[in-house]
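[SOLVED] Need 3D model of a two-part complex

Original post:
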Amino acid sequence: MISTATSGIKKNRMDWLLFFSVLALLTIGTLAIFSSVAVLPNQIRIVRTHLIAIPLGFAVFAVVWRLNYQIFQDQWKFIYGAVLLALVGVLFFGVVDKGSRSWYHLPFFSIQPSEFSRIGLILVIANYLDKRIGKIKEFSVVFGALMLSLPVFLLLIKQPDFSAILITLPIILIMLFAAGANPFHLAVILGYSFISALFPILWTIINLNPELLDSPLVSYFFHLSNFGWSSLTFVFGVGAAAYLLWILSVKLYSNISGVFFGGAALVLILGFFSGVMVEHQMKEYQQKRLEVFLSPESDPRGAGYNLLQARIAIGSGGVLGKGIFSGTQSRLGFIPERHTDFILAVVGEEMGFWGTMLVMGLYVIILSRIRTCANLARDRFGYLVNCGIFGMFMVYFFINSGMLLGLSPVAGVPLPLLSYGGSNLVATLISLGLVQSIYARRYALV
Amino acid sequence: MIERGISQDRMNLLWGLVAVVSLVFVLRLVSLQIIMHAHYREIAERNKTQILPQAAPRGRIYTRDSAAVATNKPSFSLIYFPGAVKSVDDINLMARSLSQRLNIPFDALSAALYKAVKRGAPVRLAENLSLKAMFSLSELKTIYSGIDIIVEARRYYPFGNYLSHVIGYISKMDAAEWAVYGRDKNYGMDARVGKAGLEKMYERNLKGKDGGIYLEVDSRGKLNRILESRKWQPGSDIYLTIDSKIQSAAEEGLKKSNTGKGAVVAIDPRSGAVLAMASMPDYDPNRFVSNSEEKTADNLKELPEFNVAVQGTYPPASIFKIISSIAGLDSGKIDPAETFLCPGYFDAGSRVFKCWDKKGHGKVDFLNGMAKSCDVYYYNLGIKTGPLNIEKYARMFRLGMPTGIPLPDEKSGNVFGPSKRAARKSYWFIGDTLNLSIGQGETLVTPIQLAQLASAVASRGAFWRPYYVDYVMDAEGQTTFKSRPEKISQVELKESTWALIKEGMREVVLEGTGQTVRIDGVEIFGKTGTAQNPHGKDHAWFVAYAQLPGKEPEVAVAVLVEHGEHGASAAVPIAKAVILAALRDRLSGGPDTVKISTSAGEGR
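Solution:
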């Protein structure tokens, strides 16, 4: 085995299957982008940016691939600092686009630091988990990892860039999960973040639909957003309910520990408190952005228009599609954000079932190769980094495709390698450079 | 790999999740792109095409002498194609600047725009744009997407009020009409349909096949390109039996009369073809072609849609003496030479009935009684003939029955007599007999019934169903409908009765109450009437028919001037003008002689 392995070292410095899958996806994406922007007034700018981003991305990809990825572990403090600095800087020097201050404006193109901060955070968390792998089953490690990423999240909320949070938080949880963290701890974290996000989201929804307030339950719930008697009753109600359930389980001679009930109540109450905090901390523009995020179809035609149009585009493509540059749905502007978040609808319309299947197949190949590279990594850090990148592709894939197929709610999330977006493309190619770098150094003996 | 201290199980679990979710995605793709493909393809097709219907020209309406009384002219409409992304602010902004230029209230415009956006269908914001409005709008076209101007055929009535009660008018559909026409694909929501008269009765013939522009539009509703332009097919033309000269004479006569209200019906006694039908007050049907719904509603409120000629019922008054005479003569109860004394009143025992002329007519025989319209003569005639007989003849001459002219809501009037009283289990008094025989009391007739009566006398008992549409010709020149005269009934009377009644009516014109109608070279037979009206001034009647010497009667006419007081003074000149118009070009002496004789007639 060793002899065959050593003979393979020099030949395969690169996972070619992964590389060519990426290349194929980029080709399809570029065609779809060109087709969908062909009738847009700002097509020149989009095509130019895309054509700058591709070679730039591959240059960075090559650099990262040639570098020993272990440098990133050594320099984690520097990376962490750079991520925070970039995110803080953008709040001061960034330009506002679509309600978010998340862009550095440069002469030829703009840079979105949140895209790069995701890769940086994966490296930082991978290093953190690598160092504490022995105590991974303890809550302190899970908590520590979250504390480490908390500043990044706070800065993202400040912009606000909800879609970046939507992608990054699951990546952290997937890395913790892959590293072997206690599922109960992860459930607590998941529950906590779910609840603290749920409360403001529900309140915003009620704000958007004031007629819901007619129901007394909804009205009570809405009053919780201000600290007052109703909040106090809520806290005591949750505590009492948890206590009664615990008593009940003791009486039933079940083996469920009291920690379980206490933890659940604590998560609920803490989640509630941070939800209220978030609600009150949110500035008006952030509130507005959340509303748009929750109901992007705020146009006179009513709910679900955009998604419906995307579904019509995909469905009307049929088996073979309408032909590249011939999709009526995309070219006549029925699909919103057609070159970014809804690019898969353009592929579905113009390249049909086989086109969409090809994209999904390539995505599954990429995910499969990243998993293989993780398994082949020569150290734990490489393995964890690969897990993070695997999680990133997975989350993008699930959320974006699920949304277009009508299986998950609307969210402004692109599909990497396919969607237009210079920063996202370069950041994605950096992550793939990391995977290749880890692959290239797979067999070195410890 | 043990040296990593991490089990790969967790990664394998995540990998499993990817496999399961991918499978779900593939199944969903199969459902969307293969199973439901046809459905979504259709929606996508509909998405990108919008049909902008272009109203086909309605069929034209011509009179017998080829005057177009209803036609079309090109009109420019402002169209809005709704788009996908139009915010409330955008719509308001657009509505505001459009309302300034179009002079349409902002609320109405923005409501129309919202509706269009919600339905996703193009809407007409304004029609029949003025040249000035077109210029200022073409400027806006470049600023606001979705706004465009198209050309359409628009109904136009060149003579305004002319013949309005026969032509009717068109307007937007109401809910009930939509329920009927909506099933027909040829009718769009904003199509106009006939609401009265010919426009209503011949709606399906007049309406052509609408054309349409099939447009490829983008999501903002902005016109991308024209896919196909389907040419419209004009509706069928209708040719009337109505003669424009006779109709003008009738309308002008009515307008010039002392009240300007009433009706004139002229019928060809040989076929029942209506030569003229005027009803005052009338209206201008052009008013309803307007786009503004409010304006149309305003117009409707004051619309004199009431067609006096077929819907107005009045006591026939002395005109009824024709029936009484026929009843007396034909039943043999009255000898035309028999005379009655008219001292100016008639003593019916319990009550005294007056003659219209208080001085009295002295000894009166039939011809005299008819010519002078002596009431006392007819009181005696009535008593001798018997009310039952008179009622019978009234029914024979189809009073109390609609004539069957194809116009909506024709009234049947009323005949009263002993048999009707008996049916109602009421009593008949001598006074009723007297009233019946001079056409007062409960008898009610419509102008067209009296025109038909004159026509029946002229044609010796032939009752034709009055008709006014001669034929209908479709756009290819094919005659799709041709009216054939339809004889409803034939009244058989003794030859002597016909001769006497004719002589009596001739006597009215020569020696009696209707002398002013005389035209040299034309034989006119007539009867005047003055209907007592308890609510105001009396109504003036005149019925007549005319023939060239030695020829068949060619025109029968009934004139009613509401509150015109005396039939002789108010109604007769109108009838004269109508008869003159009908026969002028065939008078032997040529137009000049006619003119002279006209002035001579008026000199009396």
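Edit: The first strand of chain A starts at residue 95 and ends at 97.
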